[in-house]
Amino acid sequence: MNAAELRDKTPDQLREQLESLKKEAFNLRFQGATGQLENTARVKTVRRDVARVQTILNEKAAQAAE
């Protein structure tokens, strides 16, 4: 997922995506704690995707405030 794809989405779609990414991050942390996590790199990518979505949401909010 890249920033250009995210900028095309509406704020509601971004919020839904953020929610699903946070759920996935929680599940990955849980798997890591129980020793069931196979792809440890996925934790890093999900964290970065969450940050990307939050950044785009903040940009859209700043544009709407102007």
TrEMBL record:
PROSITE patterns: RIBOSOMAL_L29. It comes from the Bacteria. Keywords: Ribonucleoprotein, Ribosomal protein. The keyword Aminoacyl-tRNA synthetase does not apply. Gene3D superfamilies: 1.10.287.310. CDD domains: Ribosomal_L29_HIP. One of its GO terms (molecular function) is structural constituent of ribosome. It holds the Pfam family Ribosomal_L29. GO terms for cellular component: cytosolic large ribosomal subunit. InterPro entries: Ribosomal_protein_uL29 (IPR050063), Ribosomal_uL29 (IPR001854), Ribosomal_uL29_CS (IPR018254), Ribosomal_uL29_sf (IPR036049). GO terms for biological process: translation. The keyword Disulfide bond does not apply. NCBIfam families: L29. Belongs to the universal ribosomal protein uL29 family. This is Large ribosomal subunit protein uL29. It comes from Oceanomicrobium pacificus. The lineage of its organism: Bacteria, Pseudomonadati, Pseudomonadota, Alphaproteobacteria, Rhodobacterales.
